[in-house]
Amino acid sequence: MTNKEQSEDETKRKHFRIKPIGFIRSDLKCREDAPRQGGEGAPNAFIELLPFYANALHRMQVGDEIIIISWLHRARRNVMEVHPRGDASRPLTGVFSTRSPDRPNPMGLHRVKVLEMKSGRLQVGPIEAIDGTPVIDIKPVIETNDY
Q1: What is the pTM of this model?
Q2: pLDDT band (50, 70, 90) for residue 17
Q3: How far apart are the first and last CA of the chain?
Q4: H or E element: which one contains 10?
């Protein structure tokens, strides 16, 4: 590979596009109202899929456990260290060692249960994401002991 080809390849890898497949519709309207984790009093919410992705729900069922991967669109992307859980008495910790929403690429992982399904709209819960949060993927929970 020539230097020019290597430089072009590196440029292509620096940026790529992630498109939302849907959006979270929740009673949580701002970050300050959201619990730190879903199991800490988060409400149920709806995932509204864009019509193009509706067939991707084929074989999903009420009762399934899934992982919603979201884009935490109100996160601060220049934060590299935080006090875990916002507690100033805890030492500063690198965001890669925390579940902070503030991080270079603010993806959220939310393990939820499917409560209801209706034409491209899932009710799931509990989920701590705020209203309007883009959903970038959905994956099934697979229990395994393989590490």
Answers
A1: 0.82
A2: confident
A3: 36
A4: helix 3-14
